[in-house]
Write a structure and sequence with these properties.
Oligomer: single chain
Order of helices and strands: EEHEH
Shape: globular
Distance between the termini: 14 Å
Number of helices: 2
Strand order of the largest sheet: 1-2-3
Strand content: 15-25%
Radius of gyration: 13 Å
Length: 75
Amino acid sequence: IGVPDAKYGEEVMAWVKLIEGEELDEEGLRDFCQGKIAHFKIPRYVKFVDAFPMTVTGKIQKFKMREEATHELGL
């Protein structure tokens, strides 16, 4: 998702839900992305979650994710 940034307008934030029994940290995620996607698409912020906010029809509510991230990061 995009979160506000003073310099660029928006920065990339990844919300990651890991499969049970798997382990990953922020640096590992960034290392995995390096060389596979453009450098400006590599997430600056990473949050590991157990579940995403969903609608009753099963769609992810990105606006709620953006609000929560903005509040947590103090942006």
